[in-house]
Task: structure prediction
Amino acid sequence: MTEKRSSVLNQISVIILLGSFFGAFFVGFLVYLLISEHDKEGALKKAFFSYIITQAVFLVLVYIIRLSIDKTIISKIKSITRAMDEVSLGNLDVEVKASGNDELTDLAESFERMRISMKTIIEKLER
Result:
């Protein structure tokens, strides 16, 4: 039975969404505190409106951050994972391609060197 795993991207998104919720609530609360001294009746309405606007801005930012993380990190991890799965099944012809200047690119390059070394050793043993 295969266990369903949680995506790192989903976990990061939940953390960012919770942060945006509390951040927007804090902004709304500050607006309420600042306005309530001068306008008791309209303070709650304006605080709620500022909360909604701030939350909308935060949600757009969270979506942009999620897309950025997916493009820069998760796609590289998935590519490396697919190649590792293929190699573990005996397919030493699959290449790992990653570009950039980060740790995931270093990992992909190290895996590619290992794959080529394994393929070379197996070819030598077969001769």
In short: The two ends are 41 Å apart (CA to CA). The chain has three helices and no strands.
